[in-house]
Amino acid sequence: MKGKRLIGALMVGLSLAVMGVLGYRWVEFRLSHAITNAVFVESDTFVKVSYDRLGGKIVKLFKEEGERVKKGEPLAKLDDRSVKLKLESLRLELERLKKEEKALRVKRDSLRKELLKRKEVLSFKEEEISQNLGALEAQIRQLQRDRDRFKRLYEKGVVPARKYEDIQTKLEALQKRAAALEATLKALKKEKEVIEVKIASLRELDLKMQALRESIKSLEKRVRDVENLLEDTVLRSPINGYVVKRFVSEGETVRQGQAIYALYDPEDVYILVLLEETKLEGIRVGSKAYIKIDAFPNVKFEGVVKEIGRAAAAKFALIPRDVTAGEFTKVAQRIPVKIELTKGDKRLLRVGMGGEVAIEKWRR
Question: What is the DSSP letter of 363?
Fold first, then answer.
């Protein structure tokens, strides 16, 4: 009987000792860690995907909620018939302008070649006639001197009248030929002046071609823009990850900027802790953290403090507190703390999940 009492007393003592050790550890853990249940799973790559440049009727949705997506993979397709019609119209107009510009260029080059060739021929004739006229004028001057000399001899009776008259007749013939050459030379110069005016008038064709080239350049830019718009009718994933939410259905008409899918990358999830300001003392970047997620109570997650916010979360609330008139209730503010996961299966986590965290305090 006495032995049984002794064993009972030992058991009670042992139980009290264990409870004491556990209690001490519990208290010590509470004192050395900042503990809170204001814990949320977040992701840096959580995005709502939408059509940024156009809207229209959804003709195809390629992904369902929970499916994995790769960066660049198609998510949705808009009815692109109106865009294709616009693109075809612009391409036809572009082709027309290019043909018109080409026709003007051919016409200009042909006219310029023809005019320059004609000008060259006229210049050659002008030079030839000028040389002939120069030689003829030299003959006329010689005949004039012979005529004057024979006239004096004729008046003295040294030479017969027929000799004087032959020289006079020959001189008059040469003078007529010279006058004809001068008239021809004048006509050639006038024709050259007309050709110069026509060559100068080709500048108008150059200006028309320049205007057409500017129009072509502008239209090519519009074609590229509509081609990009046609490509944008296919909505593609900007990240590697999973579909969190699908907001629309096939056949639905969506507007520009309206969310079609919500995506996130599980590899980029982190833990957001809204830590009470009274527990912030001793928390530093690099402090170790132990996380328990409500959905997975038996799975251990660990991490380190990556960032400590510089402002209370309440400063960014939709309706922030108005403290200008004073407050009578003291409310502990919460500071956002970002924790990077270093241990645990991130693939289990979903954005928005809650849990509890214990962050080691810095010991001085």
Answer: P
Sequence-ordered list of residues with C-beta below 8 angstroms from that of 118, at least 6 positions apart, any chain = 195
> What are the DSSP calls for 186-246, one per residue?
HHHHHHHHHHHHHHHHHHHHHHHHHHHHHHHHHHHHHHHHHHHHHHHTEEE-SSSEEEEEE
Q: Which residue has the tokens 């020289």?
A: 167
State the DSSP code for 158: S
User: Structure tokens of 74?
Assistant: 């198609």
- Same domain assignment for residues 213 and 282: no
Residues contacting residue 183 through CB under 8 Å, at least 6 positions apart: none
Do 272 and 345 have their domain in common?
yes
**Integer Cα distance of 307 and 353 in angstroms:** 20
Domain span at 55:
32-79+244-360
Question: Helix 161-232 crosses helix 81-156 at what angle (to 10 degrees)?
Answer: 170
State the Cα–Cα distance between residues 88 and 133, nearest whole angstrom: 67
Residue at a domain's end among 179, 212, 232:
232
Are 91 and 256 in contact, with CB atoms under 8 Å apart? no
For position 318, what pLDDT does the model report? 46
Do both 67 and 185 map to the same domain? no
Q: Which residue, chain included where needed, has tokens 């998510």?
A: 75
Task: Starting at the earlier edge strand, list the strands of the sheet with 47-50.
Answer: 47-50, 259-264, 241-246, 68-69
pLDDT of 164 reads 79
Q: Do 162 and 268 share a domain, yes or no?
A: no
Burial class for 205, CB neighbours closer than 10 Å (0-12, 13-18, 19+): middle
- pLDDT per position as a tens digit, 222-248: 999 999 999 999 999 999 988 989 999
**279: part of which helix (H) or strand (E)?**
none
What pLDDT does residue 199 have? Answer: 86
Estimate the share of the chain in helix, then strand, then coil, as percent rounded to the nearest 5: 55, 25, 25
Look at residue 116 and tell me if it is in a domain.
yes
Q: Measured between alpha carbons, how far is residue 32 from residues 166, 209, 240, 278, 283 in Å?
A: 143, 82, 39, 14, 10
User: Whole-model pTM above 0.70?
Assistant: no
